[in-house]
Design a protein that fits this description.
Three copies of one chain form a homotrimer. Chain A has six helices and twelve strands. Chain A has about 270 residues and is an alpha+beta fold. In chain A, the strands form two sheets. In chain A, strands 1, 2, 3, 4, 5, 6, 8 and 12 form an eight-stranded antiparallel beta sheet that branches. Chain A has a four-stranded antiparallel beta sheet with strand order 7-9-10-11, with no helix packed on it. The radius of gyration of chain A is 18 Å and the shape is globular. The relative contact order of chain A is 0.18.
Chain lengths: ~270, ~270, ~270
Amino acid sequence: MNPELGRYHARLRNLARSCLDIKEKHNGAQDGMYVLTTESGTYYQTFCDMTTAGGGWTLVASVHENNINGKCSLGDRWSSQQGNDRNLPEGDETWANTVTFGSAEASTSDDYKNPGYYDISAKDVSVWHVPNKEQLKSWTSSAVLRYHTESQFLKEHGGNLYHLFKKYPVKFGAGQCKSDMGPSSPVVYDTGDKDGPSVGKSSFVTFRVFNADQAAMAMCSGHKPTECNSQHYCIGGGGFFPDPQQCGDFTSQEQAFKALTQSSVLLFYR
Amino acid sequence: MNPELGRYHARLRNLARSCLDIKEKHNGAQDGMYVLTTESGTYYQTFCDMTTAGGGWTLVASVHENNINGKCSLGDRWSSQQGNDRNLPEGDETWANTVTFGSAEASTSDDYKNPGYYDISAKDVSVWHVPNKEQLKSWTSSAVLRYHTESQFLKEHGGNLYHLFKKYPVKFGAGQCKSDMGPSSPVVYDTGDKDGPSVGKSSFVTFRVFNADQAAMAMCSGHKPTECNSQHYCIGGGGFFPDPQQCGDFTSQEQAFKALTQSSVLLFYR
Amino acid sequence: MNPELGRYHARLRNLARSCLDIKEKHNGAQDGMYVLTTESGTYYQTFCDMTTAGGGWTLVASVHENNINGKCSLGDRWSSQQGNDRNLPEGDETWANTVTFGSAEASTSDDYKNPGYYDISAKDVSVWHVPNKEQLKSWTSSAVLRYHTESQFLKEHGGNLYHLFKKYPVKFGAGQCKSDMGPSSPVVYDTGDKDGPSVGKSSFVTFRVFNADQAAMAMCSGHKPTECNSQHYCIGGGGFFPDPQQCGDFTSQEQAFKALTQSSVLLFYR
């Protein structure tokens, strides 16, 4: 291999920590796959969006529903794979741990989470709803909804979703509908808009909400819930839902728009 | 790390897309592990067979039966891990998606699929049946059956099995026995032969067949089915088998030869 | 990428096989993440402890209990994920195969096993019990128990746990309590001690034991069992326990100390 790696002190040095680092040093950097590193020196590959609103967005995760009839079963990594279980109110705890899985190229065909999810220090999120199975080169053109925040809301919550969800656990019974809603931020639409596939009762993204049953959900894409039926438009969750039909990465089969139900939710940081 | 990766524009450049690319540039290249890249720039490691019939074969996948009594349960990634389910006629869809798993070195102890499976543009396949748990250095000597095609049949089907199975879905009820058989190619034996462990009613490899129950199977190693009991010698499948005993990566416990049942099926492209 | 990798013969050369190799060549090497390679040329990243007792320890695995109520269910990779099953006396066979999973950085939040587990030729083991979810930079300070062997016992058993467990299968019914205990070695404590969280009936680590029911367990941390109730302080196991409550990576909910039950067991070689 190269002279450095070829020697016996093969530590990876000086890799970027995020796509934003790369974009800031090389303004001409293009969309594509890059190698990044964590603070501890774990390197990994992911996709950088170097275009949207100035670029510098790092793909850190995707939520993919592999079986809408599976209720907290295999593949429901963003809620629970252990079955709907009152003894596991936090389920698999994926939103707030360092476990990683999947690959960037398969992030529309399977769940994905890379070390950037917990390592990058970011200010904003960008969210793409891309139809399942689309290949990387078609993501931008095929996305049914794309939006990002500009409020820098992550700065107040530890710099990423890992820290945000440590503060606001996705845990059954840890709070009430309305009174214990987690952070929310207004969004700017890049593809689709509030009157389009996003329902758009309001143009927000909101994290960690509870429904009327005290079931916890992780993320309401394009919404700031005003009612207590968040299971119809939020995703991810804890490991227990009093209505077992809701347990799963996509909590409802009757999400607002079918195009969204059959899409994967890709999460970027900047 | 190296000067390029050490800078902040750490994109991987100029890696080979396949073992054949390497062999064509370096005729003396030996069997072993190599780093390859996809068109999008995802790099990965796999084993190259640089010997058989001129070499240039890339290991892209393996089918391993972890529990012959598990019926479409955990570990049955090439059929379904969700249980035998009429609502999931395509099961986990592994034959036709970009999800990857496992490692080359463990491909006789677990299922394996790397990005080459969907990325490489190939003409032929090579198939090795290697006893479970054999270590990489013993694969060639311990294989109970090895054969390859020379018909270049993949050229007509998109250049790899990913595209072939998009055209011929491994899906319960999508066709009938005999009338809807997928592509078939004659094979050349490298280890074993048609009178040996391969049963050898005919010397073919056939993809996507249906049995009398309309259950779909992905690959019939060494065979072109003439009867409708393909579950006895084909592997992989959709997510529903009317006879639930057949659901799994290895559809039958009574496969023609025990040595094959206790082997992993390694798939190579060239 | 670099000149070498950028060419079409991208094989990784001259990487170290273990953290000890690195330490011996570079005495000043620090704790952290390094790139290693197997004999076959598979490279991987892991954590090196370059400090304890002279350093040179390679992290090769961790055993993490994701759900103490799950009985040989999803996540129980070090026993069985297939349910308590008399037909699977060896369970997933993780202790004696080459399957790998997880990542070093997530080894306190999920099971971990890298190629070093089966590839490195070692003499001794070091074991850290680190509270679940602790981040890598806090492992040393937060560990509730750390110890290592100095007896070089692995030399007699093939140089690593992979070979040791090939010789002493973690298999229900393969032996009897007391008479068929596997290898044992005295230990030296680095954090905690025999009167501390280690219970310390004796200061040993013992591999492959059976309880009164002939159920097999893989590793008894800090112990040399003298009774036949090893399920109370041993971890890992085969795929069948006559008392189904014991089936799982952590065999008992009533392990001696709660601090240990809520910790992950990190395994190092030197």
